[in-house]
Amino acid sequence: MEEYRYSEYDYGGWGLGGKYNNKMGCNYEEDWHFQQVEFYRPDGDVEGKDIGWCLSNGFFMIRPGLWSGPWYFEDFPEARKENCSEEDLEIVQQEPAVQRVVENGTNKSLKMSIGIKKLHSSEMNSEMKDMARTICNAFVINGVQYCRAHLMICCHLCEVNYDSLRDEVNDERARLLLRPGGAPSINEMADKWQECISEQLLLLQLETDDLRSQYGGDTDHPEYLAKWHEYMKAKKFDEREINNRFLSENNEFLKNKGANQCCYWACKTPNGREEQEFQLRKCTGCGIVKYCCKEHQKLDWKWEHRGECTSNIPEFVQKEITMDRIKNLVGDYSENTGSLRQKLEEEEDYSDLPPLVDRDTGS
């Protein structure tokens, strides 16, 4: 048997035996857990047999690369060595290839380690609320992380960029012969607007550099300052016009579209099943993810979606995200909500904004 260990720097802070280095402190070495283990491949009628290995220490290891971390034990107790018959286990002579784990890739491990009940506790202190905001403002779908408010991978309004995480997830999935992560419809929308915003930022940089060069880089020159203020006023108008288009399209997508493939990672019929006329089932909790069958919906609930579905997001986080979306729709991108009511009265009614979760339909 060989010693098996993940490097905190290269593999996201996971140690053997399920001991998680949360990367929040400095005593990394104290958190590492070493064990000598054998790897077994479960066979026969064993839940989880296609997605990982049994370890001789009694744990079950999920294959790296399917989401943010390789260690996840709670949902597959049947696959632990002590619960399997000898004929159900085949010893693996060579340990699984170590693959890079996407650091903080889906935040699933953190959500599940905190626990759904704790995230909804009325006794949460400010530190716990800040942590809940951090981990719940992201929405992971089939391994890819999006901002929850707009389902963007790189969002200029939420000021997040998960592009590199998606690349690493897809690299791993390609090695495992899996389809790319996320859902094509969501990825296409995210990529379209990321390209649009990137072009505008590049144009802004080029025009700003050109204006500075006209005055020899003297940004205190009176004429430069006058032109700069006029230029920024024009750009503010352009920004509002772009955001109006973005938010209008995004709002329509959230209300009526969502994923266009089965969001269960192991699905072989992501576009739907012939016997069901290729219809996809929509999750009533979030209204975004879809599945080709009820079985895959249940499997994904255990695998990923339980920790991601809007129905399991703390209500205060849902309210904050919804408020931010309304503010954005009326052109307010500040943290000050004092003028929001007046703006809502003056401008178009956005009462048709879809709730983050439809309480009438359940989860």
From TrEMBL:
Checking Pfam families in the record gives: zf-MYND
Entry-linked SUPFAM superfamilies = HIT/MYND zinc finger-like
GO molecular function (one): zinc ion binding
Enumerate the spans annotated as MYND-type domain. 259-309
Alphabetically ordered keywords of this record: Metal-binding, Zinc, Zinc-finger
Region Disordered: start-end pairs: 340-363
* Record-linked PROSITE patterns: ZF_MYND_1, ZF_MYND_2
Q: Signal sequence: where? A: none
Q: What is this protein called?
A: MYND-type domain-containing protein
Q: Which organism is it from?
A: Chaetoceros tenuissimus
